[in-house]
Every structure is written in C-alpha cells, then in structure tokens.
Amino acid sequence: MRLPGFLTGRRPAPKELMIHLPDDLLSPEGIAILAGSTGFDSWAALFLANSVARSLPGTAIEMILPAVDVDVPSLLDVPPAVTVYAPGRGGRGSCTDVLPEARIVLVVSEFPDSAIRPIAKRFRDAIRIYTRPDEDANLVFNLKAMPVPARMYELSKLLGASPDTSWRPSMPRGEMAQAASLLSPVSGSVLPYMASTTRVADILRRHGAELPMRIVTMDSKEGPVAGQPPSVKAAVIAGATVVATDDPVHWAQASALGVPVIGLDRKSAFPNWGGPPAGDAQGLADAWAGLLRTGW
Question: Is residue 158 over pLDDT 50?
C-alpha cells in the first residue's frame, strides 16, 4: 500500500511511503498517540496506551494531549512520555514542542476536530491511523460504531498487542485525598454522594426523583469543587457512588473509572462509551429510576 504524505507550505511533496500490512504495523519501536481536544478523547487514549505498554514493552509510547489533560497519563501504571498542545487561533491546536519521530501515529478522536489537524499534519511521513474517516488520515480502521474501550483494544491489536480487557485506570492517592478533604474538610470521611451537574440535578428534582444521598454539583461556582484543577475534579467523579451528568467528559470519566453513570445528551455530543445516554429530561428521569431499582 502506498501512502502519500501531505504538502506543507511550499515544501516539496514527500516521496510516497510504501507499507506492507499488517507486517509494518506489528511491534513497532515507537508510536505516538494523538488525542483530540474534547477532554474525553484523552481518557479513551488511556486504554490504548495501557494495552500497548503492557503487551509490547519494547514499544516506546508518547502521548500528545491537550494541555488541560496533561495529568491524565498519571493514571497509567507506567506513564509514557507526554507532549501537550494548546488551543490556537481559529480553534486549531498549537504545539511548539518537538514532536516524536514516530512512524505510526494512532489518532484518538471521537468527532472531527480542527484542533488536532495542525498536529497531525506535522507527521507528514508517518502512518496516521484514525478510527473514523478523516481527511488527515492515510489509514482508516473504521471502528466508530464500536464503543470505547473495545475500540481501543481493537486498535492496539493492529500493532500486535494483546489487550488486558479487565484493566481500568485508578486515580492517584494524592488527588483522592484532596477530593476527600474538599468534600469532608473536618473528618475527611466522605459519605456516599452523587456527582452531578446543576442542570441534571434540577431535572431530577422537578421529576420528583428519589435522591437518597448528598449531591455534589461539579459545575457550581460556589460548591467545594469550584476552581479545582481537572485532576481533582476527576477524583471527585472517581469517589462518587453514582454520576448523573450532561457533561460528556464526566460521562467518559465515570465510564472509564467504573462508576455507575446516567447522562443527558441533547446535542449528540457524548462519546460512544457504555450504554446510550438519555436524549431528553423524561429519559433521564427514567434512567435514574431504573438505576435505583437495579442498584449499584
């Protein structure tokens, strides 16, 4: 298979890259994992990085993430090298760091994302593998219909990995302790709570939902979580008994960490991860009632 690179400015077009599938993808010396800017793409990328790191210890991994997610790889048993990019003009990502000289770039991006286009194009002579059609891909392994983390497992198998499907990320003790001190500053012993957004909590109350525990609102400007860094907010999600949210990042975090979650997705903005979220308020109330009946 011949994979032409992309023109960059006035530079001449690179020579065509000849690869042989699957041989040229198996057990590579190094790979780059480029995650989209959504916040939830970085969490999906954890499962890909873990599968490769555990199964192919000789393969060097570098994750390229939005700057706000720089702490996410700390959830891996062996954190890889990390390069970050920041939002740039027109929504396009900007990265001034030297990117890894990877021949294989695995792009974890649920939806078309202008922020990663300039980053992807800098890997002009690499095999850029997407799991959905994209104009910057030169190899598409179309797995979009498959939910995370199964999609990441299949992607890792392209490299010859044998993914550990039982693995889940776990928050570092420091962040968990900080979250506990925020929620219970006197005793540090946190009673069961539901992590929710203000809108979802209000919907459940209006529908007369039974709410048998404390509600911690993740988006409140005055609550204990207000102003905390993303890693501590993720620890609040991790420590929750249940999560009810209209935030797609919370949905991905809870799903990744194994916390029961219901979601409200009116804009089809949630990643394909676990069961489908509700599309309206009544569906959300029904999902909550169902969760109460089955327990967690």
Answer: yes
What was the pLDDT predicted at 29? 94
Of 80, 33, 30, 77, which Cα lies nearest the Cα of 58? 30
Rg (CA), the chain: 20
Residue 4 has pLDDT above 60, yes or no: no
Domain 2-157 indexed as CATH 3.40.1190.20: no
Fold designation for 173-294: Rossmann fold (3.40.50)
Spatial contact of 95 and 87, defined as CB atoms under 8 Å apart? no
Residue count (the chain): 296
User: Per-residue pLDDT for 88 more than 80?
Assistant: no
**Residues of each domain in the chain carrying CATH 3.40.50.2000:** 2-157
CA 60 to chain centre: 20
pLDDT value at 8 more than 90: no
Q: What sign has the CA pseudo-torsion 253, 256, 257, 260?
A: positive
Output the pTM of the full model.
Answer: 0.91
Task: Return the pLDDT at 95.
Answer: 83
What's the Cα-to-Cα distance from 229 to each of 1, 32, 78, rounded to whole Å? 45, 26, 22
